[in-house]
Write a structure and sequence with these properties.
Elements lengths: L2 E11 L1 H16 L6 E7 L3 E4 L5 H4 L2 H7 L2 E4 L7 E3 L2 E9 L9 H17 L6 E3 L3 E4 L2 E11 L2 E9 L4 H7 L8 H11 L3 H5 L5 H16 L1 E6 L3 H15 L2 H4 L3
Parallel strand pairs: 1-2, 1-11, 3-4
Antiparallel strand pairs: 2-6, 3-5, 6-10, 7-8, 8-9, 9-10
Length: 254
Amino acid sequence: MTEKWRLLLTGANTAAINMAIDRAVLVTNSNGKVPPTVRFYSWKPSAISIGYFQSLEDEVDLTTCKDLNIDYVRRITGGGAVFHEKELTYSIVIPESHRKIPKNIMESYGHICGAVMNGLSNIGIESMYKPINDIIANGKKISGNAQTRKMKTVLQHGTILMDVDVEKMFSVLKVPNEKIKDKLIADVKDRVTSIKHIKDKEINFDILAIAMKKGFEEEFDIELVEEILTDEEKELTKKFELECFSAKEWNHRR
């Protein structure tokens, strides 16, 4: 009998709410109150998320963010600063002890990224896993991923780029030297791609979500059943949004 996991489609939210939902699901899953959960979501307004160990002031031009109405947040996962605009973001939350998730972190990255690669294959894009946390298509990065393990639970989230505006991204990301900014932009254009660049057309979020749902089901041999956040998760989301992800103490802590 095929194991059933939960699918959450939470739509477009602020950066603080998105990260609060991920943390709320992690807590409820760690307490055994919800099954393994896959979530697909997007960001409104556009946002920069920084890794847990980064300095917001060092990485992000906060004045330009304000001028362009671009949100920002510190993640609970590591890694670098990420510009979120035209993309599908996924998260997966699952107990470390679950038989379908490898104990080894590198292997678990590869397994979860395999689900994303399946999803891309379902819309006609062949891709490959580039350890530790990238997926590349046509030799360029199309997905970046980050993982943390807390309370004996794995949380991994990542992006699937539907389109990318490199100039806009670098308008809000600080660079060490303005003189080399043009070179950095050209370099990123050489290294980063998107579904629109490969397919030469836009594929909307809903169609991509269907492809990704199937990709996760194929990789993990499961059935994803669409549900909504529990009442406890909604309460935790509000709590984490206010006390953590929208708080200056959290976002500016380094």
